[in-house]
Structures are given as structure tokens and as C-alpha cells.
Amino acid sequence: MYHLTLKTEQIMMAARFNSTISKNVTIAKKFVLDKHFNGLPKRTDIKLVEETLPQIQNGEFLTEAVYLSVDPYIRAYQPLTKLGRVMMCLQIAKVIESNSEKFPIGTYVVGDYGWRTHTISCEKSFGEKVMGWKLPPFGTLPLSVGLGMLGLTGNTAYFGLLDICQPKANETVVVSGAAGAVGSHVGQIAKIKGCKVIGIAGSDDKGKWLTNELGFDHFINYKEPNILEKLKQFAPNKVDCYFDNVGGELSSNVMRCMNKFGRISVCGAITAYNSNPADLPKATLVQGMMAIQQLKMEGFIVTTFFPRWMEGIEQNLKWLQEGKLKYRETITDGFENTFQAFVDMLQGKNFGKALVKV
């Protein structure tokens, strides 16, 4: 009887030991770049691999992805990404194991972790060498807004419009890519500032959303042939501010319609992102228009504003709580579907913010 009991205890102790070992071994899944994109990205350009993570050390914490952000800049930066590197993106992640008093278990963070399920971070480098921040409390709003209106997307709209375009009441603001996460947000901030807003997007359904729900004054479908005529019709006093997400001939047409001393905030050039390097789209020269109308065009990367990061989040949260901002999310379920969500976003199939729920 004694022998049986001892053996039973040994088995139980061994089971507890094995459980501890397996708990401390984490297998992370990640998508890495296998081939540089040529035109529209293909599934064979990336590879899903697994990585065994080490045990966390003092000052470190382990996170598990909850939401991944899918954004156009991922495509723009891809040519600069080395093969074998994890596909870039911000994600909302939950701390599931911690040796850091600053990041206890259960803390939600936004981290520049990329397309991966689990990540180890060091409290000393988090927010410095690795872009990231603790997710502030949003009240009844869902966690996902921390990647949208209350995250990098919202700050892109906030700083890109207000600091660069500096819109004034009664001015006319044009936004391209207006039904995307940034563009839809920009237009609403312009309305808050008392501006007339014209949104440009790729479908009439998006146009109805912009005008009927978000309060845009006018909508132009960029797939129609009469864009310049529509701009002149909707902006008889010309355009004062242009928030440019797309580039190309569309942007040249907007600049033809701008007032003297107009301001242009260049956020992106999605028109060219999926083009082959040898076959980039051609557009009318803008230097003449800029000189004659004395326009100001400025490109920006939102991380430049990182020292003021919480300013944008806090103001956007206030506007949301006051009902002055509305948002829409296109959420794809499943980490394995991240690539498809990425391609769908590049093809304009999303309304508002594109996310993957891991």
C-alpha cells in the first residue's frame, strides 16, 4: 500500500513538473517575408513559421496577440524589409506572463510586434526601441479602437490634418481614400472644425456612408471619368486643404482646384503601392500648380509626433464620447487569415479600419 501511494505521489509530482515546463515553453506563430512583392502581394510571398520562445527574464513580459492592424503603410515599407523578417504591423496584445512590475499579467498593450501570435518584450525598451504604449481605459468602447480611432490611425488623422493642413472654419477640405480608416477620420475632424468636406472613394456604397452617416458634404467616386468637373462643382470657391492618401493623377486633379496658399498633407500614395517598380503610374506635373498657387505640400510619418502621442488619443476619445466621431471596423477572424485581410484592404474592400481578430 505504501509503495503504491509513493508511486502515485511520484507520478503526480512528475505531472506537475511537466505541466510547469510546458507552461513556460511558448510556441509563437509568425508570418515572415519570403519574397519581395511584385505588384499585388501573393500568398506565396510570405511564409508561416513557428518559433520557440525562451523563458522570460527579469524585466520582461510575454504577450499574446488579440488584434492585428492591417494598414497601407505595410505595403509601402515592404521593399525595405529584409527577407525572413516578420511582416510589420501594430497589434493589441495581452500580457499573459510577466517578470515586470510595470506590466503585470492582464495588462493590454499596443506593440509594434508584426504578424505574430506571441512576443517577449523588455520594459526598458518598450516604447523606445520598440514602439508601444499601454492601452489606456476606453470605458465602454471595445479594445479594437486602440488600433483605430484611439491609436496610430486616429493620431495619423489628428496630427496629419491639424498640424500640417491647419484647417480653418468655412474652408473646403478634400480627402482622398476617404472611406478608409484614416480618411474617414480626417473628414470628421474637418467637420468638427467647421469645414466643408469632400470625400473621394471607390464605390457609391462608401459614398453613402460618408455623406449619410459621417456628415461629409459631398462624395466623388474616383472610378468615374469626370472627377475634375465634380471637384469644380462641389468646390466653387476652390479647395483650401487636401489630405492625400493616394497620389497619382487624382491628386494632380485636386491640386488644379486649390486656392492660393492651399495646404496639402501627404499621408500616402496607395495608387502606386501595388504597381511594378518599372511600371509606376504617371501623373501630371504639380510643380507649376504649386508655384503659381503658392501651395504648401508636406509629407509626414505619424511617429514623428510620438512625444505628443497621448494628446491625440485623449482628444479623439473626448470627441468619440461626445458623439462627434463615428467609426466602422472591418474585422477578419483568425490569425491564419491575416494575409487575405491585408490584400482585401489594399483592394479597398474594407469600410473604415481593417483588423484581424486573432
TrEMBL record:
It catalyses: 6-trans-leukotriene B4 + NADP(+) = 12-oxo-(5S)-hydroxy-(6E,8E,10E,14Z)-eicosatetraenoate + NADPH + H(+); dodecanal + NADP(+) = (2E)-dodecenal + NADPH + H(+); 4-hydroxynonanal + NADP(+) = (E)-4-hydroxynon-2-enal + NADPH + H(+); decanal + NADP(+) = (2E)-decenal + NADPH + H(+). The keyword Phosphoprotein applies. The keyword Phosphoprotein applies. Its EC number is 1.3.1.48, 1.3.1.74. GO terms for cellular component: cytoplasm. It comes from the Eukaryota. Monomer or homodimer. It is found in: Cytoplasm. Belongs to the NADP-dependent oxidoreductase L4BD family. Pfam families: ADH_N_2, ADH_zinc_N. This is Prostaglandin reductase 1. GO terms for molecular function: 15-oxoprostaglandin 13-reductase [NAD(P)+] activity; 2-alkenal reductase [NAD(P)H] activity. InterPro entries: ADH-like_C, ADH_N_2, ER, GroES-like_sf, MDR_fam, NAD(P)-bd_dom_sf, PTGR1. GO terms for biological process: prostaglandin metabolic process. Residues 43-356 form the Enoyl reductase (ER) domain. It is an enzyme of class 1 (oxidoreductase). It comes from Pyrocoelia pectoralis.
